[in-house]
């Protein structure tokens, strides 16, 4: 019996994905460059072995799969993907589908898709979110490629994806790089979400002087209400954990220097490329970079000292903590609104027709940003699919009006205390700018016209596009 699908690359992600595929009753052929890893994988597969066809050469691998052959590649991102595609071209036949499930930059995916166009082979760029656990038990799957090639793999992919209230967290999102692009924006939003949670934690720890355990209790409580999400849940869990050696809270012993692999940065870069503000995401990427300047920060604290009043002494602590919860919700709305606005613009620019309600839908489970909140986004976009921005949909405009007062009070308190809240403040600045019909760019236009004769539009429609600026500084 031929395998329904093949997979190359049996490291952490590939082997977990292969086990997930086998567990759902799909016959799968596997191959790994280093053959010993295939042997180990088969032993570890246990009872799932009956659905797995281990192979030791690409000839054997290809022959084991039912044509047209879908081949998932889950190897090291970058050059190895191009090398493997070049090799596979010589082994596969017309109609076969190469599926890159690694963390590729969507621009590489577009290039690879185009590169295979005349070969008879097709290419799918597949964003897989949820880490190792997700790959094994149900990831969120974002597919980009031709719709016909998706049809060939739809059954296998929906069988392994996460489910939210019975609905599959897997969808075809558009041609070529659409899937990897959406995965990139997912990660950008993830950065913003995590940063905002960390900023709120900073206010609790440094502003109110709470212990890690007290912070854990607060996040635990929030996880039972509107902020219910995987990231809040794990924040509560990590804040509760103690170091087995010292007995101290584990978080208190962790160096405040965050790593990053680049996908958050890509989302900020693409937002900038398209001229779409994604300030909360940019602030979160920058905050991670700044966190890595540990030595400089320690030196600067000695020179400059800590700013502001330090402690926050609210009239009512309970009311302030309730404000923090609503501020986090408001900040989150800002970050997601920005992420979706970037996708809307990319959809036009790259000709994808990205389905916004479906994107929110497939993020509701399986991925790192999974939450109840995404179900609200799904409903909002279903009700208003062409909304120019999430925050003008009826449901979310009501939420912004309900929560932005709390965000304003929290940002003001943090700023006065000297506690950094770059992502939350960015979200607030975004709301305040986006909702203001008359901004201040009239002055910028005048400045531009002064030094560069760029011209401007008049509010009264009068057809006069320059000056009069006199002779400038000479007049003073
Ligand atoms: P690695 O990124 O560590 O890659 C190792 C695998 O790549 C091995 O199977 C290795 O084979 C193979 N490989 C490397 N170079 C080549 C080559 N030139 N030709 C053929 N095979 C090659 O594995 P991971 O499982 O950690 O990650 C796989 C992909 O998934 C990456 O793109 C990564 O970014 C992404 N990823 C996604 C996550 C998510 O949450 N979605 C989380 C972690 C990773 P060999 O055994 O012979 O060395």
TrEMBL record:
Binding-site residues for substrate, renumbered to this chain: 103, 129-131, 186-187, 191, 261, 288, 448, 454
Active site: 183 (proton acceptor), 190 (proton donor)
SUPFAM superfamilies, sorted: 6-phosphogluconate dehydrogenase C-terminal domain-like, NAD(P)-binding Rossmann-fold domains
PROSITE patterns given in the database record: 6PGD
Keywords from the UniProt entry: Gluconate utilization, NADP, Oxidoreductase, Pentose shunt
Key word NADP present: yes
SMART domains per the UniProt record, alphabetical: 6PGD (SM01350)
PANTHER family tied to this protein: 6-PHOSPHOGLUCONATE DEHYDROGENASE (PTHR11811)
EC number: 1.1.1.44
GO process annotations (BP): D-gluconate metabolic process; pentose-phosphate shunt
Protein name: 6-phosphogluconate dehydrogenase, decarboxylating
Task of the protein: Catalyzes the oxidative decarboxylation of 6-phosphogluconate to ribulose 5-phosphate and CO(2), with concomitant reduction of NADP to NADPH.
Transmembrane spans: none
Enzyme kind, highest EC tier: oxidoreductase
Subunit structure: Homodimer.
Molecular function per GO: NADP binding; phosphogluconate dehydrogenase (decarboxylating) activity
Family of the protein in this entry: Belongs to the 6-phosphogluconate dehydrogenase family.
Residue ranges annotated for the 6-phosphogluconate dehydrogenase C-terminal domain, each copy included: 179-470
Metabolic or biological pathway: Carbohydrate degradation; pentose phosphate pathway; D-ribulose 5-phosphate from D-glucose 6-phosphate (oxidative stage): step 3/3
Residues engaged in binding NADP(+): 9-14, 32-34, 75-77, 103
Catalytic activity: 6-phospho-D-gluconate + NADP(+) = D-ribulose 5-phosphate + CO2 + NADPH
Listed Pfam families: 6PGD, NAD_binding_2
């Amino acid at each position: 019996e031929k395998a329904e699908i093949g997979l190359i690359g049996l490291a952490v992600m590939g082997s977990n994905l292969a086990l997930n595929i086998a567990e759902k009753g799909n016959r799968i052929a596997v191959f790994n460059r280093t053959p010993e890893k295939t042997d180990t994988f088969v032993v570890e597969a246990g009872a799932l072995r009956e659905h797995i066809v281990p192979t030791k050469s690409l000839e054997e691998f290809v022959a084991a799969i039912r044509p047209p052959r879908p081949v998932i590649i889950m190897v090291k991102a970058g050059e190895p993907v191009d090398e493997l595609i070049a090799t596979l071209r010589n082994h596969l036949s017309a109609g076969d589908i190469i599926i890159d499930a690694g963390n590729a930059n969507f621009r590489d995916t577009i290039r690879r898709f185009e590169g295979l166009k005349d070969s008879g082979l097709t290419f799918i760029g597949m964003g897989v979110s949820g880490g190792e656990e997700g790959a094994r038990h149900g990831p969120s799957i974002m597919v980009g490629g031709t719709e016909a090639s998706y049809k060939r793999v739809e059954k296998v992919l929906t069988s392994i994806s996460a489910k939210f209230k019975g609905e599959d967290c897997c969808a075809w999102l558009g041609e070529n790089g659409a899937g990897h692009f959406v995965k990139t924006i997912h990660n950008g939003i993830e950065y913003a979400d995590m940063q905002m949670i960390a900023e709120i934690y900073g206010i609790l720890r440094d502003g109110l002087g709470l212990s890690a355990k007290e912070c854990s209790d607060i996040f635990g409580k929030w996880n039972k209400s509107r902020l219910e999400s995987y990231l809040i849940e794990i924040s509560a869990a990590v804040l509760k954990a103690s170091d087995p050696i010292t007995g101290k809270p584990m978080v208190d012993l962790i160096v405040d220097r965050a790593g990053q692999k680049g996908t958050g940065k890509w989302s900020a870069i693409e937002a900038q490329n398209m001229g779409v503000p994604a300030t909360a995401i940019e602030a979160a990427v920058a905050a991670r970079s700044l966190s890595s300047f540990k030595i400089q920060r320690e030196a600067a604290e000695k020179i400059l000292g800590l700013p502001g009043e330090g402690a926050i002494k609210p009239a009512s602590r309970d009311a302030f903590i309730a404000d923090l919860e609503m501020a986090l919700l408001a900040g989150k709305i800002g970050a997601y609104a920005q992420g979706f606005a970037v996708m809307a613009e990319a959809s036009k620019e790259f000709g994808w027709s990205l389905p916004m309600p479906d994107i929110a839908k497939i993020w509701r489970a399986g991925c790192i940003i999974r939450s109840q909140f995404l179900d609200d986004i799904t409903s909002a976009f279903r009700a208003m699919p062409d909304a120019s921005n999430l925050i003008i949909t009826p449901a979310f405009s009501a939420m912004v009006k309900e929560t932005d007062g709390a965000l304003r009070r929290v940002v003001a308190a943090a700023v006065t205390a000297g506690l950094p809240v770059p992502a939350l403040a960015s979200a607030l600045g975004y709301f305040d700018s986006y909702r203001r019909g008359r901004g201040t760019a009239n002055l910028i236009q005048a400045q531009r016209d002064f030094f560069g004769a760029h011209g401007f539009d008049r509010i009264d429609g009068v057809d006069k596009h320059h000056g009069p600026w006199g002779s400038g500084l000479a007049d003073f």
